[in-house]
Design brief:
254 residues, alpha/beta, Stationary-phase Survival Protein Sure Homolog, Chain: A, nine-stranded mixed β-sheet, 25% helix, 29% strand, globular
């Protein structure tokens, strides 16, 4: 194992997800792979961590240059426990996905896939999140692999600035190429379907929809994905609005 790269992989669709298996297959081409993934789907977890119950870690599979664990925590828990209990040194790369469904635009803030990647970024390790715009459990990831290889190779070759990770989204079908772009503007409009359980108590099921607010901008992930291109958005962990700092200093707060 001496001299081989170490790659840590997690996701939010769970240890059994087809997208995770596809990403592992790609990562094995670049080095030794350690997988720590939730034992069940944990979508929408964002940067959540487990503080109110024990976290259990179970070895799932082991072979030459590969080891995997299931974790009862969140995607961020998976990355944290890998650093604390399983790695003897920082990995060369952290990957998450391949997510079943989009994590473009504002979804980056809700995504467990990207939560794992942002945690990796906090640890100063080059980190990339991959998502396919297909929610089907048996989605075809063959087209993702070609582009993931290119992005992983270039990231290993060039590195990423400290505090920056990549959010990669792949359209369904045959992508035309890769587009470097900014995060699109939009929001999820929450609609809650009210239902009644057998005890005559009301409960609610989220049925919201995404509202694109780009207003015709052509340099966003929303746009390039619609045009059939893979979107690559550099994401920073520093969410300070630096332009607003000086404006706030002019307020009468003292």
């Amino acid at each position: 194992m001496t001299g081989r790269r170490k790659i840590l992989i997690s996701n939010d669709d769970g240890i059994h997800a087809k997208g995770l298996a596809a990403l592992v297959e790609i990562a094995k081409e670049f080095g030794d792979v350690l997988v720590v993934a939730p034992h069940m789907p944990r979508s929408g977890m964002s940067m959540a961590i487990t503080v109110d119950s024990p976290i259990r870690l179970n070895k799932f599979e082991k072979s030459a240059h590969f080891e995997s664990y299931s974790c009862t925590g969140t995607p961020v828990d998976c990355v944290k426990i890998a650093f604390d209990k399983l790695l003897d040194k920082d990995p060369d790369l952290i990957l998450s996905g391949i997510n079943h469904g989009s994590n473009s635009s504002v979804s980056v803030h809700y995504s467990g896939t990207m939560g794992a990647i942002i945690e990796g970024c906090i640890h100063d390790v080059p980190s990339i999140g991959f998502s396919l715009l297909d929610y089907h459990p048996d989605a075809d990831f063959s087209q993702v692999k070609e582009f993931a290889r290119k992005i992983i190779l270039e990231t290993l070759k060039n590195g990423l600035p400290r505090g920056t990770c990549l959010n990669v989204n792949v359209p369904k079908g045959n992508p035309k190429g890769i587009a470097i772009c900014r995060q699109g503007n939009g929001r999820w409009v929450e609609e809650f379907d009210q239902r009644t359980d057998p005890h005559n108590e009301n409960y609610y099921w989220v049925t919201g929809y995404y509202q694109n607010m780009d207003n015709g901008s052509k340099d966003t992930d929303n746009h390039v994905l619609t045009e059939g291109f893979v979107s690559v958005v550099p994401v920073k962990i520093d969410i300070t609005n630096h332009e607003q700092l000086e404006i706030l200093k002019s307020w009468n707060l003292w």
